[in-house]
Amino acid sequence: MDGDGDGLPASSPAETLIGRDHDLGLVRGFVDEAMVSGGALLLSGDAGVGKTVLLDAAAGQARAMGARVVRAAGVEFESTISFAGLHQVLQPLLAGLDRLTDPYRTALSVALGLDQGAPSDQLLVSNAALTLLVQAAAERPLLVVVDDLPWLDRASAVVLGFVARRLGGSRVGFLGAHRSGEGSFFERGGVPHHDVQPLDTTAAAALIQARTPSLAPRVRERLLAEAQGNPLALLELPVALTAPQRSGAAVPELLPLSRRLQAVFASRVETLPASTRLLLLYAVLDGTGDLRVLTSATSERTGMEDLAGAERVGLVDATTGRLVFRHPLTRSAVVGLATSEQRREVHRALADYWSDRPERRAWHLARATVEPTEEVAILLEEVARDNVRRGDAGGAIAALLRAAELSPRGYERSRRIAEAAYLGADLTGDLRDVPRLLEEARLADGGRAGPLVAAVAAAHHILLSGEGDLDTAHRLLVGAIDMQHQPYDAADPTMIDALYTLAWLCQSSQRTELWKPLHRALGLLKPEVPDQLALTLSTMADPARTAPPALGMLDEAIASLDQEADPVRVIRLAMTSLYVDRLPACRTALRRVLRDGRDNSSLTVEIQGLVYLGRDHFASGEWDELDAQAAQGRDLGEAHSYQLLSTEFLYQRALVAAARGDEAAAKALTDEMTLWATPRGVGSYLSCASHARALAALGQGRFEDAYRHACAISRAGELASHVPPALFVVMDLVEAAVRTGRTSEATAHAAAADEAGIAAISPRLALLVKASAAIAAVDREALDLFEEALAVPGTDRWPFELARVRLAHGERLRRVKATTEARTRLADAIDTFERLGARPWTARAGNELRATGLSIGSAGVTGAASLTPQQREIALLAAAGLTNKQIAERLFLSPRTVAAHLRQLFPKLGVASRAALRDALADLPPD
What we know:
Blueprint: H1 21-37, E1 39-45, H2 51-64, E2 68-73, H3 84-90, H4 102-111, H5 122-137, E3 142-147, H6 154-164, E4 172-179, E5 193-195, H7 201-211, H8 217-227, H9 231-236, H10 243-246, H11 257-270, H12 274-286, H13 291-297, H14 308-312, E6 316-317, E7 324-325, H15 328-337, H16 340-353, H17 358-368, H18 374-389, H19 393-405, H20 411-425, H21 434-444, H22 449-465, H23 470-482, E8 488-489, H24 493-509, H25 516-523, E9 525-526, H26 531-540, H27 543-546, H28 551-559, H29 567-577, H30 583-599, H31 603-619, H32 623-639, H33 643-659, H34 663-680, H35 683-700, H36 703-713, H37 730-739, H38 743-756, H39 763-776, H40 779-790, H41 799-815, H42 819-836, H43 839-851, H44 869-879, H45 884-891, H46 895-909, H47 917-920
Parallel strand pairs: 1-4, 1-5, 2-3, 3-4, 8-9
Antiparallel strand pairs: 6-7
Helix pairs in contact: 1-2, 3-6, 4-5, 5-6, 11-15, 12-13, 12-16, 16-17, 17-18, 18-19, 19-20, 19-23, 20-22, 21-22, 22-23, 22-24, 23-24, 26-29, 29-30, 29-31, 30-31, 31-32, 31-33, 32-33, 33-34, 33-35, 34-35, 35-36, 36-37, 37-38, 37-39, 38-39, 39-40, 39-41, 40-41, 41-42, 41-43, 42-43, 44-46, 45-46
């Protein structure tokens, strides 16, 4: 039940809060209303911003009104224990179980482990929990307060999310808290939320003055600047200073906020006696907060009196009869300071204490065990079966995978991995054929291929559905591959599918260490790695370092795509082409795959085809087409629980919104991406979200934000290993660095891109690398570099990037008084930006053009000569009498895109209708 740390002692009354009048008023208003008519509210904010103290204030107000309050908190250790969080919430209300109907009573009793029986449907458990809460509120209003929502176990999060959205008219209030940007399985859609902001400058100064009045003014100003309004930092940072430093002596250099605070917590824990640290380690690894556990489990090695030291320094509070840590980072510090043997010893003791609770005992033993031990594996397998009976397949998978790790190599390990695979494939979703196919595969091949087939299917399911995290899928698949007889057979299609799937998992994670088992497996593949697999790995894993030598082979493979009948091979070649800019050459084959997928009801192929076509549409400036297609892909993905691919369409829409200046849409889309990807470890979409955020910030002139987001993908001066999106934000980072005065970082990053040789990969990357060097260079040198960049052949396939380079060139030309040349570049950029609907970029280029003394209206070329090649083709077809639909079919566009082009070209030609097109085009020169 640990909160997020509000920076105040637990006993501090809400009235003494500094700078929180608005937040307190909002929370109190919610409680007033909820105690009469029900409702829910979520508080979000950075760690230490004060969410927990607002929860305390709400609870105190509710009690003062005569309402009943039940409190719970997500706990890291309990996050793998099914319905542990729900048990915290409902335990004070269990006396009301007897008043529920039989189905509801049975559903809750089984889910909470109070009774044995068949597992109940999740909807039944959710409705039963809702009914119990509403029933309790009939006697007096009820406020449910839940802190640290992301640490709730999956089953509890789903139920409480269901409950929170259905409390209207019930006299039940639900108040929850979570850190900003931290994903969870608690569905927040439809639940009002309030973001708790850092303190403003005045309030922050008042807080630090009130709590540490002896600080020297110079020290206070420095701490205020670095704390940035975070109450916890304002209160805790002075603690780390020595008395001379607080009086004005030299203050040491401080690390970034998160690391600095972790260091503060660790240093405070280190000062405690060993017996106190041991007692805290018991409390952290137990996770229940029950003081009776500490009294019994610690035996004679430590006693409750050892807790006093931690209470005196404010690390914990035990005044309510339960041990509560003031901040989750305190728990992390306690565990981090313990040795691995100390942690295992405590887990063993806790396993002895929980001998009558099989699930807790088994997990403690599993964490205490290093060597394969069949006895512990059996206990975990029993836990898994119990989780299945209670309707928690995710918990069962985790237990079976750990059981497999603790099993001696052989049949039992194989069987447990295969069973975990089956359960993974059978998670809730629309991939309904997977369990049947797995069963058929096992019946058809009872040998070594069975478990591997199961693991491949399950990993696909986990990856596509998003029901689990990538680490689980990775461990499952690596374990299954390791069990196969060595050397591996390169002609075995199951093994090759497994390696492709593992590569997809690794690429989605963007973590270098996850690639190591794949490379180990490739080394065991005989007689050699198949060409297509080797090609794919060379361009999708770390293209900055491995792609160039493979490009000739890739181009040859793509040249044969028009005759390729296998849709899987087409999709894999598109995947291989993504980060090396070969998607335009795959377009025809992808459209065929898309058409065939619809005809054959091949949903995965259809959605993947939409993914790669969408990426190509953005690159080629066909943004209206992309918007319509992304909406279609998103609908398909959500309808069939393909959450990973659905998130891809959020990214594509976010890019368009960012480039067109729709900041609200870009923020909403990237926030949704981040909240989904974070708990599942999908690093690729965290990079994608940063890409869209950086682009939005650049367009709006928020260069500090742009620099921060670009650096989140790859730090300045390097192309991050195994992070392919880093290739496409080189110019973003360099421009943002120059605009924020970081010239050395800009130069270093441009040099890193040049030295990596990525310009050899594609015309677009050559354009970006040379333009980045130009942006980072001094004026005269820059002009030559810009000319080199714009002379790269084939860059017209990437109109947005090309226009951005023209804009940057025009800006530099204007700076050196080359006004005529600047006008030409800027006018070209404006024409492209206007056609794309990139409003902030049009405005930026327009401002530059006006600075040359020329208005936008007088700059542009008009008439037929002003048409782009695609507009020219559309105009000719429309003048010939073709309808929008006929033009779309001929040019592989959507009717909507054709209509948009016609709207843009009419003013250029000075006409208002299609009927006037023939005359307007009469003098058009031939191609």
